[in-house]
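User: Fold this one for me? It's Glyoxalase-like domain-containing protein.
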Amino acid sequence: MLRTLRAMDSHPALLDHLVLATPDLAATVADFTRRTGVAPAPGGVHVGRGTRNFLVSLGGTGYLEIVGPDPEQVATPGGPRPFGVDGITAPHIVTWAIRPPDLDAAVAAARARGYDPGPVRPMSRRRPDGSLLSWRLTDGDSAHPSGLVPFLIDWGDTAHPSAGLPVTRLLSLTATAPDPDEIRPLLAALGTGLPLSAGPVGFSCTVDSARGPVELG
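Assistant: Here's what I get for Glyoxalase-like domain-containing protein.
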């Protein structure tokens, strides 16, 4: 029980999911499965965006999204694929999302506190079973370039993607930034927080598994 409580307490306020981007989705999913003994579940295809994802629960309603190029989508109209998957050479956590109780109110409150998370736009994808998953989120193009400041998401009436996923509980999530004092007020404006220390921009995440703690970065 103590181990479970510590895992749950490690979730930042309002955490919805972490985004682990990779240039090779199949290889990264296979490596995650080998290291944890847990096979991430297929999420779905982002039609027109050139990507697809696999998901694993972090405990509670938080989850890890492993996202990479979809080999079945050749063209990517409208620019590069999201989360910088075209420009990375190794998998790493690039950003995260929070889920406030009221997305529009949270955006307004953040702007009043001096941080604009960007416009809200709708998105959707098909699950492997063909059902439609719809959500709204703040535009990542307007987010802080470090990725350390989360985007905001609202799943509306859609069943949350974490339901029924295999689980590797989140034990810790920290980050580094060249100037942590620049990031902390932006997190506070969104009603969340993240343990920050000085260093190159990056995340450090540890998940629990039957094979012991596994570090992701």
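One thing worth pointing out: The helical segments are 2-9, 25-36, 103-112, 180-189.
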